[in-house]
Write a structure and sequence with these properties.
The complex is a heterodimer of chains A (301) and B (150). With 301 residues, chain A is α/β, with parallel strands linked by helices. Chain A is 37% helix and 15% strand. The chains are: A alpha/beta (301), B mainly beta (150).
Chain lengths: 301, 150
């Protein structure tokens, strides 16, 4: 593995390798050391959380980071090409972590520079480190990735994290329930992929009747900006809020995941229940990112 | 059926079995600006296709590599090389698996739409044929994409 650009590039073996390494790092069975290594964190789009998680992961590995945020005060505003910016940064750093709003930019970055590149989100396309930390969280809570029943709720159209996650899980025989407002449904090409792989899924209006059946529920934020009419937003938003009363009959292994930030799609009263897992999920992100950085910089299998 | 006469060429390339109606697209892809005779036949009867288009270009020999991209719009096309009125080579075109710098990605948020980068597409195993952008990973029907003239 030279770069991490898209979940599409990863084999089942690659995924299992990274999950195992993340676990070994978390349990301190392995203590990889990235002393004297420098990661350039290039964030053309704001993302406090992902940036923070990468910076933490690098520091916990004894490595260092430099950050470029936005495009102000850089040559990008002077008209420098994206390729030139990347080439220059590659002269300083050992690793590039990049987030942009432009789809395919991380793939292009990886083709442009000689050092490893990690995609930290390229527009609506891919966010593979999030998908991997989600898988790690699922594995930790369920002790398996196989044969799980998973409800996915919220914005399924624009939510790149759910697309990557559904793609990644489809190698592990899942059963999916998708609940989304009518104009934010899972894109047809994702459903086509699932049909081809013979994976059971159902598009449902309301998750409540299915709660007892679920091993996991993955909730995403419905952004107000996705609605042309604010009134439509007010109408649907209540249907996708998870509250405590919905959790009465859930299975004992049931957990709720959310990529965060949360607005109000999970009521705060849920946070104290044993089913809330979203903050641990964020913590798992650091272990997974340590595993990814180690794999790309260490080059050892 | 009455024989339809189309002049034979002495030397050059014939692209036969182009799906009816697609020959002008083929001309566009090949970006034909040549001084010699070019013959375009449309809606000719064909046993294989019912109706077909045909293109004859005099004094120009195209290689299968150069014309394989034609298969994107005319998947059943045949390439025939003529020398001194004789067929010296006849091959079926194959849809290329990897298509470089020929398709414009329709996604306005794709890096290839914003930076000056060669586009790359991969043929998927879908039927009807689809291509996936190597960069933004969006998938399109071949009918949906614009084949860029070099």
């Amino acid at each position: 593995m030279k770069n991490l650009i898209s979940m599409r590039d990863l084999s089942r073996g690659d995924i299992l390798y990274l999950l195992d390494l993340a676990k070994k790092i978390e349990t301190k069975e392995m203590k990889p050391d990235m002393n004297r290594k420098l990661a350039a964190l290039i964030f053309y789009e704001p993302s406090t959380r992902t940036h923070f998680s990468f910076a933490t992961a690098m520091k916990k590995l004894n490595g260092q980071t430099i950050t470029m945020r936005g495009t102000k005060s850089t040559s990008v505003q002077k008209g420098e090409s994206f390729a030139d910016t990347l080439q220059t940064i590659a002269q300083y750093a050992d690793l590039i972590v990049i987030r942009t709003g432009v789809e395919g930019s991380a793939r292009y970055a990886a083709e442009t520079v000689d050092i490893p590149v990690i995609n930290a989100g390229d527009g609506a396309n891919q966010h593979p480190t999030q998908a991997l930390l989600d898988l790690y969280s699922i594995l930790k809570t369920q002790n398996t990735l196989e044969n799980l029943t998973i409800g996915i709720v919220g914005d399924l159209k624009f939510g790149r994290t759910v697309h990557s996650l559904v793609q990644a899980l489809s190698d592990f025989n899942p059963k999916f329930y998708f609940a989304a407002p009518s104009h934010l449904k899972m894109p047809p090409y994702i459903l086509d992929d699932l049909r081809k792989k013979d994976i059971y899924f159902e598009e449902i209006k309301d998750v409540e009747p299915y709660m007892q059946e679920l091993d996991l529920m993955y909730v995403t934020r419905i952004q107000k900006e996705r609605f042309a009419d604010p009134e439509d937003y007010e109408k649907v938003k209540g249907s996708y809020i998870i509250n405590k009363s919905m959790l009465k009959q859930v299975k004992s292994n049931f957990k709720i995941l959310h990529p965060l930030p949360r607005i109000d799609e999970i009521a705060t009263e849920v946070d104290d229940t044993p089913y809330a897992y979203y903050f641990q999920q964020a913590r798992n992100g650091v272990f997974m990112r340590q595993a990814i950085i180690t794999t790309l910089l260490g080059g050892k299998e | 059926m009455k024989q339809i006469k189309v002049n034979a060429i002495r030397n050059g390339t014939v692209i036969d079995h182009i799906n009816a109606g697609k020959v002008l697209k083929v001309v566009e892809i090949l970006d034909l600006h040549v001084p010699d005779v070019v013959m375009i036949g449309m809606n000719l009867p064909s046993n294989k296709l019912g109706k077909k288009d045909i293109l004859k270009i005099e004094n120009m020999e195209l290689s299968p590599e150069e014309v394989n991209s034609i298969a994107l719009v005319a998947p059943k096309a045949t390439l025939i090389i003529i020398q001194d009125f004789n067929v010296i080579k006849k091959v079926s075109l194959e849809m290329p698996k990897f298509i470089e710098n020929l398709i414009e990605c329709p996604n306005p948020k794709c890096i290839t739409s914003l930076e000056n980068i060669k586009s790359k597409f991969l043929l998927t195993d879908d039927i009807p044929a689809m291509v996936r952008c190597h960069y933004c990973e969006k998938k399109y029907l071949i009918e949906q994409v614009k084949i860029r003239i070099k």
